[in-house]
Amino acid sequence: MAVAWILSLCLFSCSQQKPLSDAPDSQFFEQQLQATADKAVAYLGEISIDSTAIPRSLQKDGSIHGTGSRAWTSGFYPGQLWQLYEYSHKQELKEAVSQWTAFIEKEKYDTHTHDLGFKVYCSFGQGYRLTQNEAYKEVILQTSQTLIKRYDEKIGCIRSWDFNADVWQFPVIIDNMMNLEMLFAATRLSGDSTYYKIAHQHALTTLKNHIREDHSTFHVIDYDTLSGEVRLRQTHQGFSDASSWARGQAWNLYGFSMAYRETGDKRFLEQAKGIAQFFYTHPRMPEDLIPYWDFDAPHIPNEPRDASAAAIATCGLLMLCEWVPESQNQYLAWADKTLKVLSSEAYQATSAPFLLKHSVGSVPDSFEVDVPIVYADYYYVEALMKRLSIAKLTQK
Ligand code: GLY
Question: Which of 1, 138, 174, 395 would you label with 304, given CA atoms 20 to 30 Å apart?
Answer without folding.
Answer: 174
